[in-house]
Amino acid sequence: MDKNDFDVDFDFEKEYGFDPSLFMDADETEKEGVAGSAFESAGDGDDDLFGDFDLDSLPEDDNSGDEAEEFDDFDLDELTGDISDEGDLSENAEEAAGDTELPGEEDIPIRRRRSRQEASGEEAVPSEAPEYPEEEVQEDPAPEAEAEEEYAEEDGEKTSSRRRRPKEDKPKKPSVFSKLLDLYLAPMRQTEDIQTVDENGRVRRRRKPSKSQIFKEVYLPAIIAGVALLLVLSFIVGSVTNAVKKKLLNDEANRRESLSASQAADAAEKEYDALIAEAEALAAGYNYDEAIAKLNTFSGTDPEHQQAITAKKAEYTTAQSQLVEWKDVSQIPNLSFHVLMADPTRAISDAQYGGLYNRNFVTINEFSKILEHLYSGGYILVDFDSFISTSTGVDGRESFFQSQLMLPAGKKPIMITETMVNYFNYMIDGNNDGEPDAGGAGFASKLVVDENGDIKAQYVDGSNQTLIGNYDLVPILEDFIKAHPDFSYRGARAILAVTGHEGVFGYRCNTSYIASKSQSYYDEQVAGAKEIAQALRDKGYTIASYTYSNQKYRDLSAKEISQEMTNWKNQVTPILGEVDVMVFARENGGINDYTGAVFTSLSDTGFQYFVDDGEKPSVTINTSYVRQTRIMVTGMNMQWHQSWFTQYFDCNTVLDISVRGNVPNS
Q1: Which of 145, 179, 285, 462 is 20 to 30 A from 134, alpha carbon to alpha carbon?
Q2: What's the rounded Cα separation, in Å, for the pair 33 and 387?
Q3: Helix extents (H) in 190-219
Q4: Residue stretches of the chain with pLDDT short of 70
Q5: How far apart are CA 385 and CA 300, in angstroms?
Q6: What is the pTM of this model?
Q7: pLDDT of 559-576, one tens digit each?
Q8: Closest among 85, 94, 71 to 152, alpha carbons compared
Q9: What is the pLDDT of residues 294-309, one digit of tens each?
Q10: Would you give the DSSP letter of residue 484?
Q11: Which string of DSSP letters, residue by residue, matches 154-167?
């Protein structure tokens, strides 16, 4: 019970004339004076302190009377015992503040007063509780409960009480931040002028800071510090951001660099493989200079590639140094073939021209055998450019002279020519409608470029099916050179001679077909002819004229030959471009005089190389022209003039008697 709550229903000042609070707060001497005066004043009152009863007159243990009933629940000894046991009043008051008050503890003086008033017949006047100053009791924010148990036995029952002792508050130690904050905010908290005395006794006065001074001393440094902090943070964030961006950029750059390096390595590998393949093909054709030049274009830096290329160049240089010059170019043979019989059975059995085909043509199987014989005999395919060089004079005309032909030791040069590569209509068209069909004599109908870029021959078989394959000399020769690249000297191919009155290479591109067919048909044929002509030149083939209309020029007049040249320039030159090789048609069809009007007509048309037929090889190089003899390979010649071919191939092995039977001699 708190000291201020002591008998709040009992007014000591009103009843006895003194204030207990003064007595409680006074020292011992003052307490005696106060107590005496208080009791004296009390005796002078209307009512005696104990007016209603005399303690000495009370009968012991007499509870039968009315007065005894009023004090049944009041035991002075118990009350005084409790007070004496509690010790000092102030100490008990402090401890009682946290204790639970016992039932009836505050009612004891109230009942005494009420019983006295009721006995005297006075009207009960409610007393006013004195006002005491309230004391602030600071509660421990985190009290630590300590439990104590007391046991007492009364009327055979066991009771227990639990007391809690509040934990003493421990002062909190101010943090460094709070101290710094208090120190920093001191000018703001100064509301009055401050006077201080220094060690010399002089009075110093510090005025109350003005707003501007507070701003300068408090806010401005904070603003500057904040701005500086923001700048530092911005710098840090920017640095981190830049570092992250830089890392990302570096990672991306490294990734791209790695990808680029990988791609560059792949590209270098592909370039290396392609260069090696091209160089090998050039070297296989004895073109060592171009092979070395090709290897010099390699841009890769891989040490292994560089080492391999260096080794290849050394190999080619050594091989080139071992070549031997072929000095007698006048004896270079030229084996000449007409277009080949794809189906000799159909050709030889032709009612009108069967005998002609058997006598003058060679089958595709026979030609393949001839190539094998030539290769095994040490022959290498050459062309005019292999051993003839030109120079242009001031008059614009070219002059010809022999150049070095360098071959490996033991190798011999040879040339191949195919004539009638325009595929005459009578050989392929059985019903004369202008289109190849099964009624033809079993020859290829045209040259084409297939989907792989290879040159093939189109052919209509006996069941009228159109086929694409090796049905003539060009595709057979191409496959053979692929298998034997050293058979071709520096990419040399055969000479292909065409007429012009029915078109070239199987394409009906003469303007006469506009009337008989249509303009669109003619345009389509021209486009096809130009495509195959360019493909042939790209492969190394030499395109030649077989006269414009398959005529024997030895029997024609100068005027007739001039008209032939005009027709050639009008019909063929727009498609094939300039052609400088003339292969004279028919047996002994060449001109006799290379100085007269006929020669001038041919020369003015652009022809400078002239090939006629004969029994032996012959090459003449003149300053203004070149003449050569071709040895015609035919069924009749292989059957009846085998000595012409003895040094090139074995006619008995090549000639297919099982298909031909008896070959006519005339």
Answers
A1: 145
A2: 159
A3: 211-214
A4: 1-171, 180-181, 183-194, 206
A5: 34
A6: 0.65
A7: 999 999 999 999 999 999
A8: 85
A9: 999 988 888 999 999 9
A10: -
A11: ETTEEEEEEE-PPP
